[in-house]
Amino acid sequence: MLTKDMPIGVIDSGVGGLTVLKTLREKMPAEDFIYLGDTARTPYGSRSEEEIRGFVEQMLNFFDTQNVKLVVIACNTITVLGPDTLQKLHKYQLIGMSKGAKLVLAASAKKNIAVFATEFTISTHAHEKAIHELDARAKVTGIGCPKFVPLIEGEKFGSNEVTEAITEYANTAKQAGADTVILSCTHFPFLQGEIQKILGTAITVIDPAEQTATNAQHRLIEEGLLKLSGTGNLTIGFTKDVERGQRLAQYIMPGLKATYKNVTLK
Ligand code: DGL
């Protein structure tokens, strides 16, 4: 049986989901969280669906042993596989990233939106479909950004390579005439300041983490599983390079207190 006192699991292919973990903790400070980033095999976004599904199953099996009440898929590349197809064998609740369709349509005066995501996510057209369900006439340009994840995992913040990569993808968004860009890969908010600077003030940048955290909170309320008092313990696991993961966690959440560990998936 699931109970309020059980922790919440959070998964990503690497450090990207930490940007969602930050928002989840702000919204639900009493909850305990266990984060798992598959740093040994990131990036997922340039792999095949079969390969990604195999890795995800291992991560979800790990959470069967952790007595969690909910797993938040803090990764768009995994979310577009369809949480329903991943849920089957697991007792805990499962929720994916918000596609942010309402948010971007509200933000975009021109109804002209660019989606920055991994190549895999873009290939599924999942965000485009979600936006078109609400407004069939909106223009949606999917832009695969394969250079970002290795640069973020490699801590290359402020480098020329980062500026060049952002400029390349920003130019595609500008050429399409977009006035709103959604960051539909959870790694990308690590670069949000630099992305916003290069896109300029005429383009709004949206991070769907806040909406995802709200959705997770509502799910817990609906299920009678929201924990309202507690100190909010945090364990962060990585499948490789725990020290690098710890630095990146501190980068996104300065002063963070957490227990770090190495996790082996099978
Ligand atoms: N952070 C992930 C996402 O939201 C994927 C990054 C990757 O492994 O390619 O899509």
What would the keywords be for this entry?
266 residues; 17% strand; binds D-glutamic acid; globular; 12 helices; alpha/beta; single chain
What does this structure look like?
The protein is of the alpha/beta class and 266 residues long. The protein is 42% helix and 17% strand. The chain has twelve helices and ten strands. It has a six-stranded parallel beta sheet with strand order 4-3-1-2-9-10, sandwiched between helices. Helix 1 packs across helix 11 (209-222) and helix 9 crosses helix 10 (192-199). The longest helix has 16 residues, at 49-64. The chain is globular and about 50 Å long. The protein binds D-glutamic acid. D-glutamic acid is lined by residues 12-14, 16, 42-45, 75-77, 118, 121, 149, 185-187.
How would you sum up this structure in a few lines?
By secondary structure, this protein is of the alpha/beta class. Helices cover about 40% and strands about 15% of the residues.
Q: What's the rounded overall pLDDT mean?
A: 97
Which ions and ligands are bound to the chains? Answer: D-glutamic acid
Briefly note the structural class of the backbone: alpha/beta
Helix content: 40-55%
**Tell me, what's the shape?**
globular
How are the elements arranged and paired?
Layout: E1 8-12, H1 18-27, E2 33-37, H2 49-64, E3 70-73, H3 76-79, H4 83-87, E4 93-95, H5 101-107, E5 112-117, H6 119-124, H7 126-134, E6 139-144, H8 148-153, H9 160-175, E7 180-183, H10 192-199, E8 204-206, H11 209-222, E9 234-238, H12 242-252, E10 259-262
Parallel strand pairs: 1-2, 1-3, 2-9, 3-4, 5-6, 5-7, 7-8, 9-10
Helix pairs in contact: 1-11, 5-7, 9-10
The structure holds D-glutamic acid.
D-glutamic acid is lined by residues 12-14, 16, 42-45, 75-77, 118, 121, 149, 185-187.
